[in-house]
Amino acid sequence: MTDYLPEERARGITITAAAITFPWAAHCVNLIDTPGHADFAFEVARSLRVLDGVIAIIDGVAGVEAQTEKVWRQADEWNLSRIAFVNKLDRSGASFGRAVSDMIRRLKMRPLILQLPVFEHGLDGGQLQGIVDLVELKVISRSDPNDNTSQISAIDIQSWPNSSVQTEAVRAREAMLETLAEFDDDFLETYLNYSDRRDISAMSIHKAIRSITLRRLIVPVFCGASLRDIGVQPLLDAVVNYLPSPFDVPPPAVQVASAGSKSSLDCFPDHTCALAFKVICDPLLGPLVFVRVYRGVLTKGMTLINTRSREKEKATRLLRMYADESVDLDSIQEGDIGVIVGMKSAVTGDTIISKRFHPPFQLQAIPLPPPAFISSIEPESLGETKSVSDSIQMILREDPSLSYSTDDDSGQILLGGMGELHLEIARNRLVHDFHAKCQMSKVRVSYRETISTEVEYSVEKTYDREINGRHTRVGLNVTVSSLDKGILQTSSKQGRRFWDYGNCIEVDMSRAHALTTVDEGEAAEAIYGGSRAALQSSSALQLPIHSVLVKVSKLQAFERLTTYQSIFTASRLATQEALANAIKSKGPTLMEPYMKVQVIVPEVDVGSVISDLSSSKGGLILSLNTEDQLDVRFPSTTDGTIYLPPDSMAENVSHETSTLFATISARVPLKEMIGYDKTLRSITQGRGTFIMSLEGFEKMSGERASRVLRELTGIEQ
Ligand SMILES: Nc1nc2c(ncn2[C@@H]2O[C@H](COP(=O)(O)OP(=O)(O)OP(=O)(O)O)[C@@H](O)[C@H]2O)c(=O)[nH]1
Ligand SMILES: [Mg+2]
What is the pLDDT of residue 16? Predict the structure, then answer.
């Protein structure tokens, strides 16, 4: 239902995060379905940014997949409460027990088992029939497990014909109560007061589960088979019962632009305040800006201010989304998610408020991964260039993890992205959805350029420029040097630091002179913006700059001749000049992206995979974990053990035949990883999987660097 794009339907995967709102048990639930493929990680990042809780769906056959582990860590960063659902237990080879031990091991979490799967032959074997709810001690099953429309009934476990299910359920329930008593002091009292634990009320159990889930001490674990609609309704009950409501989470952090300091939204009362986290360019309705309202109520007709662009716009129409369908709304309530139709300026990450506030502030931004892949786009004819670049602007507004630049010399359009699939889908959207007449070259690596460690270059200048027909003048000093990683740990004595795509811009306003027409915070922003623009592309090779420290100081203003725009331009020009000279003095230094790669393969293939990664691809093997080395004991429990459900399996699967897998972690240059899915498939007969994420950029030298320079310039070095 949420996979509505034609590309999603054709490929059977989720590509874009889709929001859906529905009522459940007298609550309103906003759900965002996110993609699992690593190339669409930004869709996950922006969803995690605005959600208060997470349902982690674990495949009961495959266990915890590498990408799940990554998303789990991101959810840690946003302090999100979680519940987990082990799915596909109807499939042969699925095992609830194994999936849970996988979760403990890979996700380093403490599970609280709240359900057990029930099979035709009890705990093991035969078709999945339903689940045991351990709080109520009831079996929830369908009258016909093959028929999704058949009646769902909940019967007391005592009446269930299989006694092994009863015995295990009692054991699992006891473990659950012990865990609750261990983590929740109020519940400990209740626990100790009852000699017969069966008498403890479901209400006090729910309360304790909610409390420790909100405190992120445990993760309640549920199970079932969504395809057969087994366990889905209890999972939705759990969302309402255990995950936080918007009023359970602390107010979001905000950044005050001029001070560069962090504060809380509570410091800005009487404002309607929302975060734009997604934009869809609808061909009929125009831009649809998805917002999460953090404070106040956003009403139809309200005048809204974008704190980044400072532009004012009226919220003429509001919508509630049901994937690709929508209904009109008069208001979006505090805590809710909705859509503002037709906003011209808002982009992902913008803060939208109802009253102008000084100094301007922004809700915490959504971290944007730097693109490591690139592809050039060729309009079919010169006349198409404008329309192709307009279409690209639209997909860029939808997906900021794509990037766009043009090569000044060749006029080529370069599109950057997270991976091969990401760029392929972007191209298909351009051609099919926006009818852009263009072709895309093969996906290649996005290199960076930096300056040599020995170089430091300064430019001190006064710029006289005509901007919009007006004479302007600004003086400043810009010094560029190689970014010493040590700077990360130190705080600046001289000024504010802005970090951007691997560079640092230090703005020192202590010696700013005669600043009267622009306030200091805005001037610092203009300096940062200008330098940042200069860092986007080097002058000779047109590559983004990386690992450079730019220090800007001695800003000199000239009364009314100095404007925000003139400071921005002066900062851009001075940074550009300093960079060009620094690069010229020692020759270009190229950097290439390195990936952290995690490959999960059958143990028999470990040797060949390692040899390919290290010998053929020049990668560095970081670790190798085989299944028998993995310890399922959880470190923080008092006796070192926790309850694990039996390794129950569906029909006809013997434990002996299941393949043992190993996880190989390595660091490999991205260039060598292009097309790796095919290599891995052939080495492992399709049984291996891998994920990779950008680890960073590293300097290139020797023949490797010369080869890339030859490719980029077409000139023999
Ligand atoms: N047997 C079985 N198959 C299932 C079940 N749930 C999902 N599937 C199948 O698994 C496949 C993937 O399902 P999706 O819901 O698209 O999975 P997803 O996690 O959203 O995938 P991405 O969004 O692309 O990461 C589909 O073919 C489903 O029919 C289940 O409970 N049992
Ligand atoms: Mg999906």
Answer: 87
Helix (H, G, I), strand (E, B) or coil at 705: helix
Q: Considering the entire predicted model, what is its pTM?
A: 0.81
Report the nearest atom of ligand 1 relative to the CA of 8.
Answer: 24
Q: 225: Cβ below 6 Å to ligand 1?
A: yes
Q: Do the first three CATH levels of 373-445 and 591-713 match, i.e. the same topology? A: yes
Q: How far is the CA of 239 from the centre of ligand 1 (A)?
A: 20
Neighbours of ion ligand 2 (CB under 5 A): 14
Tally Cβ neighbours within 10 Å of residue 194. Answer: 13
Secondary-structure breakdown of the chain: helix, strand, coil percentages, each rounded to the nearest 5: 35, 35, 35
**Distance (Å, rounded) from C-alpha 188 to C-alpha 144?**
40
* Residue 358 or 409, more confident: 358
> Residue 634 has what pLDDT?
43
The residue among 66 and 40 whose pLDDT is bigger is 40
**How much is the average pLDDT of 311-330?**
91
Q: 89-93, 268-272, 331-335: which range is least confident on average?
A: 268-272
Find out whether the beta carbon of 91 lies less than 6 Å from any atom of ligand 1: yes
The CATH T-level fold of domain 373-445 is Alpha-Beta Plaits (3.30.70)
Q: Determine the distance separating the centroid of ligand 1 and the alpha carbon of 341, expressed in angstroms.
A: 32
Candidates 424, 430, 442; CA nearest to 389 is: 430
The pairing of beta strand 261-264 with beta strand 273-282: unpaired
The best mutation among 226, 230, 422 to test binding of ligand 1, ranked by most ligand atoms within 8 Å of the C-beta, falls on: 226
Condensed to tens digits (0 to 9), the pLDDT of residues 464-479 reads 988 888 899 999 999 9
Residue 258 burial by CB count (10 A; 0-12/13-18/19+): exposed, middle or buried?
middle
Average pLDDT over the chain, rounded to whole?
87
Tokens of 90: 């109807």
The CATH number given to 453-586 is: 3.30.230.10
Could you tell me which CATH class the domain 591-713 is placed in? alpha beta
